[in-house]
Design a protein that fits this description.
Strand content: 25-35%
Distance between the termini: 37 Å
Number of domains: 1
Structural class: alpha/beta
CATH superfamily: ABC-type transport auxiliary lipoprotein component
CATH architecture: 3-Layer(aba) Sandwich
Shape: elongated
Order of helices and strands: HEEHEEHEEEEH
Largest sheet: 8 strands, mixed
């Protein structure tokens, strides 16, 4: 991971010259587990992200908590929109329920609503991506839940993987968050 951090810092040093823009996609993390939930339909509100994670730039945190970016390297999609759609897809795949991001595209109302507020989403130079925050589940039946989450996913230290390893770790962390919501929030 130190080499990944060095790569980001080297990019920062070259910021004075013209850096071509590159956009990084997040690979789909496979959903293998199935989870039964108490609701046939679930609406997911747009995920709330901290300021540094809501933008297009990709950040890495050093051991002192200082965030750095590599000029010209950006997420391929708006992170709030992308994570909301990833969560929606994962929840639908693992539960078999009708799951959609708001605004609700179907007639009638969903049986449950999920709101996710991410407090921290950052790759750390120690080789992990941290995803933490809180989610809320509400329903007309009165089942209301609020749960904290704190997930860590290893970031591959392979030199060939580079920053793509951060994207893969983010995809896995979002999938793990969907598992957490299905198992502990929607049952």
């Amino acid at each position: 991971m130190k080499k990944l951090y060095a790569l980001l810092m080297l990019g920062a040093l070259g910021a004075c010259s013209s850096v071509p823009e590159q956009r990084l996609t997040v690979p789909r993390a496979p959903v293998e587990a199935k989870q039964r939930i108490a609701f046939a339909s679930v609406a997911l509100r747009e995920v709330s992200l901290p300021g540094y994670a809501a933008g297009e730039q990709i950040y890495l945190s050093d051991s002192n908590g200082i965030l750095s970016t590599q000029p010209g390297l950006l997420w391929a999609d708006d992170p709030g929109r992308a994570i909301t759609l990833e969560l929606s897809r994962h929840l639908a795949q693992m539960t078999g329920a009708r799951v959609a991001a708001e605004p609700w595209p179907f007639s009638g109302f969903p049986e449950a609503q999920v709101e996710v507020r991410i407090e921290e989403m950052v790759a750390q130079d120690i080789g992990v991506l941290r995803l933490s925050g809180q989610y809320f589940v509400s329903s007309e039946t009165g089942r209301a839940r609020a749960r904290l989450f704190d997930l860590s996913v290893p970031v591959a230290a392979d030199d060939d993987a580079g920053v793509a390893a951060i994207a893969a770790a983010r995809g896995q962390a979002v999938r793990d968050l969907a598992v957490e919501i299905a198992r502990n929030g929607l049952r």
